[in-house]
Write a structure and sequence with these properties.
Largest sheet: none
Order of helices and strands: HHHH
Number of helices: 4
CATH topology: 434 Repressor (Amino-terminal Domain)
Radius of gyration: 11 Å
Shape: globular
CATH superfamily: lambda repressor-like DNA-binding domains
Structural class: mainly alpha
Strand content: under 5%
Number of domains: 1
Length: about 70
């Protein structure tokens, strides 16, 4: 089984595709905007709980955020 790695860049891509700004997504996901920006820039590693919140807020499958 191949190991999958979280990609903050994919959060950015999904957010841009849905045309949602960082402030809106952070509010929907219940995290701070600065934390979301660090996740997208891959300078922060979110918990699985945060990844699930982001996927739900964007209306995408959880697997989308993993390579």
């Amino acid at each position: 089984m191949k190991k999958k790695y979280f990609s903050g860049r994919k959060v950015f891509i999904a957010r841009a595709y849905k045309e949602i700004d960082t402030k809106q997504l952070a509010k929907k996901a219940g995290i701070t905007e600065s934390h979301l920006k660090r996740i997208e820039q891959e300078s922060a590693k979110p918990s699985i709980r945060t990844i699930i919140k982001l996927a739900k807020a964007l209306g995408v499958d959880l697997d989308m955020f993993f390579d």
